[in-house]
DNA sequence: TTCGTTGAAAAGACGCTCAT
DNA sequence: ATGAGCGTCTTTTCAACGAA
């Protein structure tokens, strides 16, 4: 976005960090409101513009609060907790809005958010179709990540003109059986005809074209490259990507045991690919946008796992993911304090995987009767109980409410809760919320300082 | 050239011990 | 009781080799 006008002293600005609950409404800072709006434009609607769209968004203002229409604006721009929005007053209650991510950098939108026919600046209502498109966009993005695979280049695979295709990738894209013609393509669009073949052993290979592609693109032994499946039709195209193997999405399959001990391994390829190498605190955001603070630990081999104790189990329960089921998490922010968001539950784990897990459970713990007989504690947190808990948690979710429900793990106990228990839970809830707010405040202060520094530098440049 | 086999390495799961 | 750290065992993956 070209922000020349951002530098203009004639345009008044304010910025707002997006905190939990921001989706419903947004408060204009009192000082800004009293100086520029109060007594002049009260009760009017404000018009919001962004560089991401040619559309003007009309939002109702109740007092200093943006209400009706704000949610649509948020959804259309995929604004999230910890983002920042900078409002630039262009006069006559028109604001230009710039969205900044948690890194304090401007959020880049791939293309204009609204680009269909019927787009007029005066159009206010966001259509369901556009909301669906936003969701579809998000889905496509995740699919794109799932349609990528990384491969290391070796002297052997170059000399044999043959390279292994990761099993899960081949399976996911229906390439794990028989022979398939494919096209290998580099970033410039140059292509090489090739084939995908599978073996009795289950290994799947790309045969042919590999040597030429490596030669043409100066790939040599020890290099690593990422391919993206562009079309999974009759002739799939594998395009060489410049990115080296990172994916924002990670699929996890908590076992009953991992839920019990509160420990969940993260694939090394994912952690390394995203630069997650330091132990520390991580934040998981569940499907209700409730935050869960857990720990990221590293073992002596560099393997990483989430350690959350009961919180891990409760987090999975909050997302209706039980032992043996899979969920996908999206890495929103890496660094020293990574932030993950629950992305989706994967409904049907493969039978082989499930069978394998059962086999392991039996091998390692003969007394663990997961198939029948006395269920384990984790099994008690099954769908029925989860459903009841969910019903009880209707309304504004709070981390404490989830935590306490997770800790209960026993329906009878839930029903027998005394007034004292409720008071204790409410107290816990308040304390937790306060802790979250204080943490946010500390982070906000840091971010605010960074932002101000940036503005000062920009002003110097101007 | 194709394809089966093998062995090493990596990853995942689990459990034990110790500290708090 | 819970959390943290670490060791060990099992499973999976894949490069490399060699026979047909």
UniProtKB/TrEMBL annotation:
<protein>
    <recommendedName>
        <fullName>TF-B3 domain-containing protein</fullName>
    </recommendedName>
</protein>
<feature type="compositionally biased region" description="Polar residues">
    <location>
        <begin position="399"/>
        <end position="418"/>
    </location>
</feature>
<keyword id="KW-0805">Transcription regulation</keyword>
<dbReference type="GO" id="GO:0005634">
    <property type="term" value="C:nucleus"/>
</dbReference>
<feature type="domain" description="TF-B3">
    <location>
        <begin position="11"/>
        <end position="103"/>
    </location>
</feature>
<keyword id="KW-0539">Nucleus</keyword>
<feature type="domain" description="TF-B3">
    <location>
        <begin position="148"/>
        <end position="243"/>
    </location>
</feature>
<keyword id="KW-0804">Transcription</keyword>
<dbReference type="Pfam" id="PF02362">
    <property type="entry name" value="B3"/>
</dbReference>
<feature type="region of interest" description="Disordered">
    <location>
        <begin position="351"/>
        <end position="419"/>
    </location>
</feature>
<feature type="compositionally biased region" description="Basic and acidic residues">
    <location>
        <begin position="369"/>
        <end position="397"/>
    </location>
</feature>
<dbReference type="InterPro" id="IPR003340">
    <property type="entry name" value="B3_DNA-bd"/>
</dbReference>
<keyword id="KW-0238">DNA-binding</keyword>
<dbReference type="InterPro" id="IPR015300">
    <property type="entry name" value="DNA-bd_pseudobarrel_sf"/>
</dbReference>
<dbReference type="InterPro" id="IPR039218">
    <property type="entry name" value="REM_fam"/>
</dbReference>
<feature type="domain" description="TF-B3">
    <location>
        <begin position="249"/>
        <end position="346"/>
    </location>
</feature>
<keyword id="KW-0677">Repeat</keyword>
<dbReference type="GO" id="GO:0003677">
    <property type="term" value="F:DNA binding"/>
</dbReference>
């Amino acid at each position: 976005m070209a922000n020349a006008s951002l530098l203009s002293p004639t345009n008044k600005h304010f910025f707002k960090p997006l905190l939990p609950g921001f989706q419903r409404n947004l408060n204009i800072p009192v000082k800004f409101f009293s100086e520029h709006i109060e007594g002049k434009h009260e009760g009017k609607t404000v018009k919001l513009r962004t560089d991401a769209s040619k559309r003007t968004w009309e939002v109702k203002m109740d007092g200093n609060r943006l209400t009706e229409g704000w949610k649509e604006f948020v959804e259309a721009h995929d604004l999230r907790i910890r983002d920042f929005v900078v409002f630039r007053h262009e006069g006559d209650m028109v604001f230009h809005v710039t969205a900044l991510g948690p890194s304090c950098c401007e959020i880049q939108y791939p293309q204009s958010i609204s680009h269909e026919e019927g787009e007029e600046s005066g159009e206010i209502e966001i259509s369901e179709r556009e909301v669906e498109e936003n969701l579809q966009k998000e889905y496509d993005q995740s699919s794109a990540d799932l349609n990528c695979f990384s491969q290391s280049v070796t002297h052997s695979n170059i000399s044999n003109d043959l390279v292994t295709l990761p099993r899960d990738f081949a399976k996911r894209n229906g390439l794990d059986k028989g022979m398939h013609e494919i096209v290998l393509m580099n970033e410039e669009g140059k292509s090489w005809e090739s084939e995908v073949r599978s073996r009795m052993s289950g290994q799947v290979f790309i045969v042919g074209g590999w040597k030429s592609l490596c030669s043409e693109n100066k790939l040599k032994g020890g290099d690593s490259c990422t391919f993206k499946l562009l079309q999974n039709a009759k002739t799939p195209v594998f395009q060489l990507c410049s990115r080296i193997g990172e994916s924002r999405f990670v699929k996890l399959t908590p076992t009953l045991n991992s839920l019990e001990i509160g420990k969940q391994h993260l694939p090394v390829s994912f952690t390394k690919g995203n630069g997650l190498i330091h132990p520390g605190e991580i934040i998981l955001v569940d499907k209700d946008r409730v935050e869960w603070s857990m720990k990221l630990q590293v073992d002596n081999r560099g393997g990483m796992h989430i350690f959350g104790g009961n919180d891990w189990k409760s987090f999975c329960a909050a997302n209706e993911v039980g032992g043996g089921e899979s969920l996908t998490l999206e890495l929103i922010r890496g660094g020293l304090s990574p932030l993950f968001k629950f992305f989706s539950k994967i409904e049907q784990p493969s039978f082989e995987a499930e069978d394998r897990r059962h086999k392991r459970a039996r091998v390692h713990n003969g007394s663990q009767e997961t198939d029948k007989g006395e269920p384990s504690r984790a099994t008690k947190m099954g769908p029925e109980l989860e459903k009841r808990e969910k019903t009880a948690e209707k309304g504004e979710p709070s981390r404490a409410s989830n935590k306490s429900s997770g800790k209960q793990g026993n329906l009878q106990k839930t029903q027998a809760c005394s007034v004292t228990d409720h008071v204790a839970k409410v107290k816990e809830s308040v304390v937790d919320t306060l802790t979250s707010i204080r943490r946010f405040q500390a982070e906000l202060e840091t971010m605010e300082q960074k932002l101000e520094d940036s503005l000062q530098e920009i002003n110097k440049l101007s």
